[in-house]
User: Which sequence fits this backbone?
């Protein structure tokens, strides 16, 4: 029987999913392998009637440059009971599967390792190679390499944010945008800096003080007042949804948000309009201060996850997909495929990224100290400084309370 590989996509979508799947398929098909796609993420491996599809070359060629994921995704996380009672070992045996390729985040990678260990214990060893993705760009890849999908999501987000900024200038209003980013502010900062937004708020900025609802709102107020001093009655602020992760239970209660949680224990931020919440809090604060400004909320989230990949991700994801075969041919397993800035493919093991104490992968945060970030904070963001106190008194009684660096305790 012809040797086969199986490939699945887990978690949420990111631009380039189909590019990876198509490139993996094209490469292995040309080497004589059968390529089986699994719908429903891992759920298809824990049932006898999982949906599969044979991916041939024309299909791979048809999907490789499309957004979304041709293979339907899922956040299904198998329990130990699932392994004990429901694992479909026959799928691997009857199809002569030699490699399981998984495309997803760190949760997807961890489950892949569990499956590989389970199959080895059952005397049916199957190699597993993972392709890491996230539009959040928070996986700590070496050399500062982005996670695939980030560049495309940032590009689409910037298109939306630029249009919103033009609307603000045209109508003399303010807009409050919220951007995806569960643990880090890369997407919000990337979009905001690309569009020269006068205020960007990300969790990393609160490295010297506790995040509170009022501090988040007052940073935006600081920008509004500064722009008024500059003779500009419009603007936009972008806030990373990740600030919710750092708020205390008491502060979350103040915001009025009640989160549900997914199978991996993460708060389902996508079910709540963070932009609406931030905007409402801002309106209340402005009313309290007696500042007349109209503001509108805009959410940037699901709109960018299935964006058609830009050229960067088309090339990057193609290399990742082809890199899977190189690692497999070398005998690597239980690893992620990594392409360095010079285009070389290497295996990357989860243990190399894990915190040795917690065995969890710490998120890669925005580096506030680098020149790129500091340049935008110092030269593009608008906020009250001591030099503005006298002029700011026209709008707020205590300008010092809205001093950007004092709010952040910098």
Assistant:
């Amino acid at each position: 029987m012809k040797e086969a590989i199986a490939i699945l996509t887990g978690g949420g979508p990111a631009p380039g999913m189909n590019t990876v799947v198509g490139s993996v398929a094209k490469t292995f098909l040309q080497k004589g392998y059968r390529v089986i796609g699994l719908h429903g993420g891992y759920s298809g491996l824990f049932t006898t009637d999982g949906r599969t599809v044979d991916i041939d070359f024309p299909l791979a060629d048809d999907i490789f440059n499309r957004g979304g994921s041709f293979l339907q995704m899922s956040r299904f996380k198998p329990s130990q009971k699932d392994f004990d009672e429901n694992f479909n070992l026959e799928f691997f045996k009857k199809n002569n599967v030699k490699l399981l390729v998984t495309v997803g985040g760190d949760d997807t990678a961890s489950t892949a390792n569990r499956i590989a260990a389970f199959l080895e214990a059952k005397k049916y060893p199957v190699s597993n190679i993972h392709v890491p993705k996230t539009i959040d760009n928070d996986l700590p890849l070496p050399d500062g390499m982005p996670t695939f999908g980030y560049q495309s999501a940032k590009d689409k987000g910037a298109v939306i944010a630029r249009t919103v900024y033009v609307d603000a200038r045209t109508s003399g209003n303010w807009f409050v945008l919220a951007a995806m980013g569960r643990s880090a502010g890369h997407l919000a900062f990337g979009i905001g800096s690309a569009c020269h937004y006068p205020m960007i708020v990300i969790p990393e900025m609160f490295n010297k003080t506790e995040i509170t609802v009022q501090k988040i709102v007052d940073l935006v107020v600081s920008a509004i007042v500064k722009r008024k001093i500059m003779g500009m009655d419009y603007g936009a602020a972008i806030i990373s949804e990740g600030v919710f992760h750092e708020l205390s239970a008491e502060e979350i209660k103040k915001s009025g948000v009640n989160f549900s949680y997914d199978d991996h224990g993460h708060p389902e931020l996508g079910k709540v309009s963070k932009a609406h919440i931030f905007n409402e809090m801002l309106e209340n604060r402005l009313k309290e201060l007696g500042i007349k400004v109209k503001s509108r909320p805009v959410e940037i989230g699901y709109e960018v996850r299935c964006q058609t990949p830009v050229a960067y991700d088309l090339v990057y994801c193609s290399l990742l997909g082809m890199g899977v075969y190189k690692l497999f041919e070398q005998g690597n397993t239980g690893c992620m495929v990594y392409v360095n800035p010079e285009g070389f493919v290497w295996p990357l093991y989860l243990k190399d990224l894990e915190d040795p104490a917690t065995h969890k992968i710490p998120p890669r945060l925005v580096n506030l100290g680098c020149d790129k970030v500091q340049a935008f904070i110092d030269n593009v963001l608008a906020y009250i400084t001591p030099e503005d106190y006298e002029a700011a008194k026209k709008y707020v009684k205590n300008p010092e309370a809205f001093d950007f660096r004092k709010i952040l305790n910098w």
